[in-house]
Write a structure and sequence with these properties.
two-stranded antiparallel ribbon; alpha/beta; about 25% strand; single chain; globular; about 260 residues; nine-stranded mixed beta sheet
Length: about 260
C-alpha cells in the first residue's frame, strides 16, 4: 500500500512520456521512470549497487548508466556525495535525467549524454573516487541480436567494448580509487587481464548463482587503482531458494525484507 501511494504521488509530478511507467525502487522513497518497450534495469544493477562500498564523501561515476538506476540506488543508500551517469543513448539519458528530477536529486546526481570512448574529452583524469559499470556482456560478433536497438546496445559491445570500459574507469580514477563492475563469469580471465593492464588490481570478487546447485551466471568485481596484488573471494550469492522464492539476502537488496525474522 505504501509503495502504491508513493507511485501515485510520483505520477502527479513526473514528466512521463508515451509507454513509460514509474517504478518504486524500495529505497528511501526513490522512484525511477522506465519504458518497458525499450529497456528496464535488471537484477545485475541492483546487485552492483549493493556490492559497491561507497562512502558518503565520494564522487562516483557510472559508465553506461542507462536509465540511471545505479546512481539513483547508490544516492538513496548514501553511498556517495556526488554522482555522474554517462549514457550514449539520448533517450535513455533523458529518461534518467527526468528520474533525477522526480527524486529531487539534481544537487547530487548529474546525467550526461556522451560516449565512453570520448572520456578524455569529457572529464579530467583522476577526477572520481569510484567508478561503477554494468556494461554490455556480449561481444558484438557473438550471440543473437535483439531487434530492439536499445537492448542491443545494452547487451552487445556495439558502442563500447570491455577494454574501452575498463580503460575509461582507470582514466577517471585517482590512485586508490575503486572500480566496481558486474559481468559474466565466463569472461572473468579476460576482465582480470585487462584490469591489470590498466593498473586496476582486483580486490573483491563475488560469484552469483541462481540456485545453490546451479552454475554461477554473474560475477561482481571490485578493483583498486594502483593497489598491490591481494584478492578476496566473497561467499557466493544465491538468488533463489529451492521453492523459487528470493533468498533473504536478495530480499534485503531489493528492500523487501520487512518483517522477515
Amino acid at each position: 500500500m505504501e509503495s502504491q501511494v508513493l507511485i501515485d504521488e510520483a505520477y502527479k509530478r513526473a514528466d512521463i512520456r508515451e509507454n513509460e511507467r514509474i517504478d518504486d525502487l524500495d529505497c528511501n522513497g526513490f522512484c525511477i521512470i522506465q519504458n518497458p518497450s525499450c529497456f528496464c534495469f535488471g537484477m545485475d544493477a541492483v546487485l552492483l549497487a549493493n556490492f559497491s562500498a561507497g562512502r558518503t564523501n565520494m564522487k562516483v561515476m557510472d559508465l553506461g548508466t542507462g536509465t540511471g538506476v545505479i546512481p539513483l540506488l547508490m544516492c538513496a543508500k548514501g553511498k556517495g556525495a556526488a554522482f555522474t551517469g554517462l549514457e550514449i543513448q539520448e533517450d535513455m539519458a533523458d529518461m534518467a535525467m527526468r528520474s533525477v528530477r522526480l527524486n529531487n536529486a539534481e544537487d547530487r546526481i548529474n546525467i550526461i549524454n556522451g560516449d565512453i570512448n570520448n572520456i578524455r574529452e569529457l572529464f579530467p583524469q583522476g577526477s572520481f573516487d569510484m567508478v561503477t559499470s554494468n556494461p554490455p556482456y556480449i561481444k558484438e560478433t557473438s550471440g543473437l541480436n535483439n531487434p530492439n536497438s536499445a537492448l542491443n546496445i545494452a547487451r552487445h559491445e556495439i558502442k563500447v567494448d570491455l577494454e574501452g570500459v575498463i580503460g575509461a574507469a582507470s582514466y577517471l580514477l585517482g590512485s586508490g580509487g575503486s572500480f566496481n563492475m558486474v559481468h559474466k563469469p565466463f569472461r572473468l580471465p579476460e576482465i582480470i587481464d585487462i584490469m591489470k593492464r590498466f593498473r586496476l588490481e582486483p580486490k573483491r570478487i563475488q560469484l552469483v548463482q541462481p540456485y545453490v546447485d546451479k552454475e554461477p551466471n554473474m560475477v561482481l568485481i571490485e578493483a583498486v587503482k594502483g593497489a598491490k596484488p591481494f584478492c578476496k573471494m566473497l561467499p557466493t550469492l544465491n538468488v533463489y531458494e529451492k521453492d523459487g522464492s528470493y533468498t533473504k539476502r536478495l530480499l534485503e537488496y531489493y528492500g523487501l525484507d520487512h518483517g522477515i525474522a
